[in-house]
Amino acid sequence: MDRISCLPNYILCEILSYLPTKQAGSTSVLSRRWRHVWKDLQVIDIHERHFRDEDPFDSYVNAILTQRNADYSIEKFRLACETNSTDLILTWLDAVIGPHLRELYLILHVNVRFGLKLPEAIFTCPLLKSLVLKSEISLNYGPEFPNVYLPSLKNLKLKLFIPYVHPNKILSGCPVLENLTLILDNTPDSRNVYVPTIQMPRTLKSLTFEDDTIVLDEIYHRVIDTPSLEYLDMKITIAKNSELQVSFSSFPNMVEAHLNIIDHGRVEHGAWVSDLFRALRETKLLALRYYTTRCLFSAPAFKFPEFHRLVNLEVDVPCFNTNFMLNFLHNCHVLEVLVVGIWTGFDSYTMEYNGPTPPTMVPNCVTSHLKSVEFRAYQDTADEREFIVYLLEKGLVLKTVTISIEPDFGQETKYEFVRELYAIPRVSTTCQLNIWP
Predict the structure, then answer these.
(1) pTM value?
(2) What does the alpha-carbon distance between residue 317 and residue 338 come to, in Å, rounded to a whole number?
(3) Which of the listed residues 226, 261, 386, 423 has the most CB atoms within 10 Å of its CB?
(4) What is the pLDDT of residue 67?
């Protein structure tokens, strides 16, 4: 008898719980000692990709759930599959849901036109801490959505198809929720659905929010009153004729923030984008995608807030503007890493920056903290070249400057650019230039 086989069942089950259930069950052929160990598993992890086409997936899942030891309640259940039989899924869930369930992951591909009416008991599990509903799950309960009360739920990931369920009906029943991923989309046959107000729980520490439902000429309200928030990743797509209001608190504990506000056709939403930008002034990492920066470019009388803790900055710009970047750097006092992406999409164009002329002194971060600079899709405009020269001549602690050149650069142009760049005197003796490709 080997040493591992001598271990008690609860330790062996703890080891097997880190494997997909199909692999854990295959240990039953090792020896008589292992024949029934898997039946005591309290973690069930079944993914259809682990099965060959000839394997009877549905029969296997049925066998797993019927042969396991019922004296050991299921605490974690993960299921990823594609099926047209909602009855099978509901049968499996009825066998799993109970008062001891702590984690539930459903990654399903089901015909969204028919919806999937999950067992109502899911929404009242007293010990459930993590709930993930991903892919094509549409909670089609009609007007009477079940009561939701999940007193222990801290992690929630939802992809909801509107109008089958309003997210507030779920969020309002999660009093201790800390981590939320909420992705909203319209069903393929319902592209003009009005979802007026969404209120995020105040208890959140992490929020990933994608909203593609804003399509009508109506007033929408998204409330992010979450003062304990530490992580924010927000992507909102706004149609040309829609109206949107976003309310939020300040975020004194923010560590990482990503903003992607896609405003098709106009930039009138720049006011609330600017306010949100200011509310993020305590963050340590900030990433601004192209459309978000475009709002800042055009916002009237926009003034950068003071970023006293910002260490990493990633910013995509509609076109490079030295004044914009220097104004930004003058307010990032401890910045160490700067990544600049030049937008080269189908709607790229030269855009005027409405901000003030920056101060004449060198930004504090450039002389004392800035160690790494990266340019993506560098086009070698006059402003870009001026800024590169400025950093090389002023960056006392620079260690790396990486430039990714646009692929349409000719070989001779590239050679001349590299030769001129390496000829620029660098005040930092440790600064390395990397030019790609």
Answers:
(1) 0.89
(2) 13
(3) 261
(4) 93
